[in-house]
TrEMBL record:
Record-stated family: Belongs to the SLC12A transporter family.
Residue segments, region Disordered: 32-51
Protein name: Solute carrier family 12 member 1
A GO term, aspect molecular function: sodium:potassium:chloride symporter activity
This protein's UniProt keywords: Cell membrane, Chloride, Coiled coil, Glycoprotein, Ion transport, Membrane, Phosphoprotein, Potassium, Potassium transport, Sodium, Sodium transport, Symport, Transmembrane, Transmembrane helix, Transport
GO cellular component terms, A-Z: apical plasma membrane; extracellular exosome
Record carries keyword Transmembrane helix: yes
Domain named Amino acid permease/ SLC12A: residues: 182-685
Cellular localisation: Cell membrane
Length: 1098
């Protein structure tokens, strides 16, 4: 924002105090004026408007000789204070006030520190002022140490014991990885495991190229859906260590998380054995070629595997930094080996390789190998079971989520890219090897074609070789027999061997790291108390050394099996169970429709995730039904155990969210679960009276509670108890039926009380059931407050005070025409009665016609003519159309239209959120939920916050960062730097005229008369008005800013000012609300209960 200091801007004025300056709105230039004139005027909502609200610049005027005030304003960035704004204690020295964009108040602006968890390692948690701090009467004798107010105001509270512990956890020098080194490299290495080099050729030989590609794509479909679900869960807040276990447990709760955590950690431990056995098989094959066997093939695999696991354990124990360096080296070797294979396929084959079945790219070989040729005991799903573990490395990056710099960014990006790259590689290798190598070959260079021999369609025969004897006796070469086909095909065989070593060792190393990390996270959550021993970490990276040794023991046990084909199906079932629950977690979180479910990664679908979960379960049973049954029995047993033990944890899971929207049968169960910020939703008591009397108020509330929160339409019957209770009971069923008929998901509740405030107080305390308890009071603005009796004003303001006393948020809704359409309903009811009488009379006429004949009918028509009976209108016409046919004086057509404005689809426009004070985030959550509705989805959020004029850009960036952490989309952010500037004289004059009838003017009367008037008529005193003059200025000034920035908005959501009990009179508070929301579009004045309703954690 720039200031024009030319002579025509600084005009002389006569302010009441030489220390003040005022800000007036002016046009920037002739061009801007012309541009504004071209635009259509925004809609007018009431009969008057403030001048100059359309411009977007300001000028400063002051008396001659006081320009130093203006210079000081520019240097400090603070708005100038009037004499009345200075208190006995200033915010820069000793005071109980905090400084909020230049104004001394306890009320705090939005800051990220208020939303941190107590256990956050990313920074200290600071408690904002409670609602009682800003609502209760301010104590007079509060002493604060010098400078402490600024510290608290800036979010720099003294860390408590919990924060001190966090500092110990966040030790200096911890190794953190980016998305490439931490996720992409690990996933690629773990996916490119033993199968790529020593089993993929056999799979192509068994299933053929066609079904082989299908097997790869089916595996990729399972892993891709799981990857999308993982990405969605991982980006729904901060992700800590624990990988798949952490994602599942924080989504579905400790019951599912605890059961799958053990299975997933165990699966990774067994995977170590699988990859090491693959490595050992390759070494044993090399020993066979050199005739260097130690004992026999099986025992040699056990010996080599055991030695390998010990070496890998040493690398892992050395630390994550060494393990990461080893992974990068292994990836380079692996990439060279894969490239070496593709190069080898185009190098002309020699006689030795041809005898072993390699003929370079041949169409005849491709055609022969395209179909399946399963050997005895093998089939599609058995081959799929062998291959599927090759795709199970997708969680290698997520499993070390605690060691990633930014898990929310790294996990989706690295995982999905790794799936794509490895899938392309698998497909390329499968197609190439299927087009170059025949299924069976003898390896003898002498098995060539004899002249005149019939080939019978054999591809090898057509290329000059006779491998027909492989049909009757086992052969050692070809896709079906030789596991080292890729080494034979490659340009340089030893590189493939190095690639096999790299793929198997890297996968084994990744699994050896993943298993202890997941297991440690499970043990840290103390779900299984007997396993707490393994939660301890060592070193700067909190390494789970105890978990490493446990994984080592499990891996050694499975290495002793020494059969890869036996281990693979077990691994498949364990990983498929984990993948199924990850997919179900994503579906469940989406289905629960919790406002806390806001994944930054939007490329997912809840039904696709459910399909992925079902697919995983189906594949488990198809691969190996008895292994699947055992897996689910174990998981079910663990689930029952955790449920029975009821661990003392609360992660805001989607299970809690879904339980919330279920029927009252689950209400009792919900009482055993603590609330969580992720599952917060507005649960509203709406003071509609009868729900049909204020439909607009109910519609706007229903818009942000439908399918996500509790909505109770409340009515207070005031009068003699006997009559009230009778009337109340007679209308309960009818009014609830009206809600159901109009498809409004809300409850109706009513109370009888001696006065309105007592009734509302009872509703605030007693409404709800268990956790389904209201946390927000929604009321309509009292438009007729100037004409209303004093008792009505006291009751209206009193219920706001009561709501704050009960720590319940308040939403006041104002529309230009008001809400009450009871008079219209009265007319409608009379019309319905007339309609019923008319129909009854017509029925009587028809009956008489059938009984008495034409003569009787003519006489009856004569009587009916005297009653002006006409043909009844069709019932299909709406009640509003019926009302429109009446005299204009009998109803208010504008009121009827206003009562339906929130039922209509809102066109493209904006919802302007003026987040002036931090109330826990309710003021932001409500408009966010509105934008999810079909009727409001075309409206974009614009955020307005207060700030210092010399820090506008910095505060804008800070607010954008906070909103991005909340995953709340916004169209624009505006930082208003001149909120505390005095309003213009015209606006202030309107306010003074408004409060004039309610002022006491005790300064003009003698002391005795003034005291008597104070007791008899609680009006606005001069002392009160002077004490809160700055706040009054602010309300008037805010209306000017609202007129300037938000007059054309579809909806305005604005921080509700809080009146301190005993300090602000009811008349003055109503005047504040009036001047604040005057001549504006629909306004929601929102004040939460100063407890977090938003979070950026998982």
């Amino acid at each position: 924002m720039s200031l024009n200091n030319s002579s025509n801007v600084f005009l002389d004025s006569t302010p009441s105090n030489t220390n003040r300056f005022q800000v007036n709105v002016i046009n920037e230039s002739h061009e801007s004026s012309a541009a504004m004139n071209d635009n259509a005027d925004p809609p007018h909502y009431e009969e008057t408007s403030f001048g100059d609200e359309g411009q977007n610049r300001f000028r400063i005027s002051f008396r001659p000789g006081n320009q130093e005030c203006y210079d000081n304003f520019l240097q400090t960035g603070e708005t100038a204070k009037t004499d009345a704004s200075f208190h006995a204690y200033d915010s820069h020295t000793n005071t109980y006030y905090l400084q909020t964009f230049g104004h001394n108040t306890v009320d705090a602006v939005p800051k990220i520190e208020y939303y941190r968890n107590t256990g956050s390692v990313s920074g200290p948690k600071v408690n904002r002022p409670s609602l009682l701090d800003i609502h209760e009467q301010l104590a007079k004798n509060v002493s604060v140490a010098p400078g402490s107010a600024d510290v608290v105001a800036n979010g720099e509270g003294t860390p408590g014991d919990e924060q001190a512990e966090n500092k110990g956890e966040d030790q200096a020098g911890a190794v953190k990885f980016g998305w490439v080194k931490g996720v992409l490299v690990r996933c690629m290495l773990n996916i490119w495991g033993v199968m790529l080099f020593i089993r993929l050729s056999w799979i192509v030989g068994e299933a053929g190229i066609g079904l082989g590609v299908l097997i790869i794509l089916l595996s990729t479909m399972v892993t891709s859906i799981t990857g999308l679900s993982t990405s969605a869960i991982a980006t729904n807040g901060f992700v800590r260590g624990g990988g798949a276990y952490y994602l599942i447990s924080r989504s579905l709760g400790p019951e599912f998380g605890g059961s799958i955590g053990l299975i997933f950690a165990f699966a990774n431990a067994v995977a170590v054995a699988m990859y090491v056995v693959g490595f050992a098989e390759t070494v044993v094959d090399l020993l066979k070629e050199t005739d260097s066997m130690m004992v026999d093939p099986t025992n040699d695999i056990r010996i080599i595997g055991s030695i390998t696991v010990v070496i890998l354990l040493g690398i892992s124990v050395a630390g994550m930094e060494w393990e990461a360096k080893a992974q990068v080296i292994l990836l380079i070797i692996l990439l060279i080996a894969i490239a070496n294979f593709f190069i080898g396929t185009v190098i002309p084959s020699n006689n030795e390789k041809r005898a072993r079945g390699f003929f370079n790219y041949q169409a005849s070989i491709f055609a022969e190998n395209f179909g399946p040729s399963f050997t005895k005991g093998e089939g599609f799903f058995s081959v799929f079971a062998i291959f599927f573990p090759a795709a199970t490395g997708i969680l290698a990056g997520a499993n070390i989520s605690g060691d990633l710099e930014d898990p929310q960014d790294a996990i989706p990006k690295g995982t999905m890219l790794a799936i794509f790259i490895t899938t392309v590689a698998y497909l390329g290798v499968a197609i190439c090897v299927g087009a170059c190598v025949v299924r069976d070959a003898t390896g003898s260079v002498n098995d060539t074609i004899i002249s005149g021999m019939n080939c019978n369609g054999s591809a090898a025969c057509g290329l000059g070789y006779d491998f027909s004897r492989c049909r009757h006796e086992p052969c050692q070469y070809g896709l079906m027999n030789n596991f080292q086909v890729m080494s034979m095909v490659s340009g340089f065989g030893p590189l493939i061997t190095a690639g096999i070593f790299s793929a198997t060792l890297s996968s084994a190393l990744a699994s050896l790291v993943s298993a202890p990390k997941v297991f440690q996270a499970l043990c840290k959550d103390n779900i299984y108390k007997a396993l707490q021993f393994f939660a301890k970490g060592y070193g700067k990276n909190n390494e789970p050394l105890r978990g490493y040794f446990l994984t080592f023991v499990i891996a050694m046990a499975f290495i002793l099996i020494a059969e890869l084909n036996t281990i693979a199906p077990i691994i498949s079932n364990f990983f498929l169970a984990s993948y199924a629950l990850i997919n179900f977690s994503c579906f469940h979180a989406s289905y629960a429709k919790s406002p806390g479910w806001r994944p930054a990664y939007g490329i997912y679908n809840m039904w696709v995730s459910l399909f992925g979960a079902v697919l995983c379960c189906a594949v488990m049973f198809v691969i190996n039904w008895w292994a699947a049954v055992i897996t689910y029995v174990i998981e079910f047993f663990l689930y029952i155990y955790v449920t029975y033990k009821k661990p003392d944890v609360n992660w805001g899971s989607s299970t809690q969210a879904l339980s919330y929207v279920s029927a009252l049968d689950n209400a009792l169960e919900l009482t055993t679960v603590e609330d969580h910020v992720k599952n917060f939703r507005p649960q509203c008591i709406v003071l509609t009276g009868g729900p049909m009397t204020r439909p607009a108020l109910l519609d706007i509330t229903h818009a942000f509670t439908k399918n996500s929160g509790l909505c109770i339409c409340c009515e207070v019957f005031v009068g003699p108890r006997k009559l009230c209770v009778k009337e109340m009971n007679s209308g309960m069923a009818k009014k609830q039926a009206w809600l159901i008929k109009n498809k409004i998901k809300a409850f109706y509740a009513a109370v009888a009380a001696d006065c309105f405030r007592d009734g509302v107080r009872s509703l605030l305390q007693a409404s709800g059931l268990g956790r389904m308890k209201p946390n927000t009071l929604v009321i309509g603005y009292k438009k007729n407050w100037r004409k209303a009796p004093l008792t009505e004003i006291e009751n209206y303001v009193g219920i706001i005070h009561d709501a704050f006393d009960f720590e319940i948020g308040v939403v006041i809704v104002r529309i230009s025409q008001g809400f009450d359409i009871s008079q219209v309903l009265q007319v409608q009811e009379e019309l319905e009665k007339l309609e019923q009488e008319r129909l009854a009379l017509e029925a009587t006429i028809k009956d008489n016609e059938s009984e008495e004949g034409n003569g009787g009918i003519r006489g009856l028509f004569k009587k009916a003519g005297k009653l002006n009976i006409t043909k009844p209108t069709p019932k299909k016409d709406s009640s509003i159309n019926t009302i429109q046919s009446m005299h204009v004086g009998e109803f208010n057509q504008k009121l009827v239209e206003a009562s339906t404005q929130f039922k209509k689809k809102q066109g493209k426009g904006t919802i302007d959120v003026w987040w002036l004070f931090d109330d826990g985030g309710l003021i932001l959550l409500i408009p966010y939920i509105l934008t999810l509705r079909k009727k409001w989805k075309d409206c974009k959020l614009r955020i307005y916050v207060g700030g210092k004029i010399n820090r506008i850009e910095e505060e804008k960036i800070a607010m954008a960062s906070l909103l991005s952490k909340f995953r709340i989309k916004f169209a624009d952010i505006h930082v208003i730097g001149d909120i505390n500037v005095k309003p213009n004289k015209e606006s202030w004059k309107v306010f003074e005229e408004m409060i004039e009838p309610y002022r006491l003017h005790e300064s003009c009367k003698d002391l005795t008369t003034a005291e008597k008037l104070k007791r008899e008529t609680p009006k606005i005193t001069d002392a009160e008005l002077e004490a809160v003059k700055e706040k009054s200025y602010r309300q008037v000034r805010l209306n000017e800013l609202l007129q300037e920035h938000s007059r054309a908005a579809n909806l305005i959501v604005l921080s509700l000012p809080v009146a301190r009990k005993g300090s602000i009179s009811d008349w003055l508070y109503m005047a504040w609300l009036e001047i604040l929301t005057k001549n504006l579009p629909p306004v929601l004045l929102v004040r939460g209960n100063h407890k977090n309703v938003l979070t950026f954690y998982s």
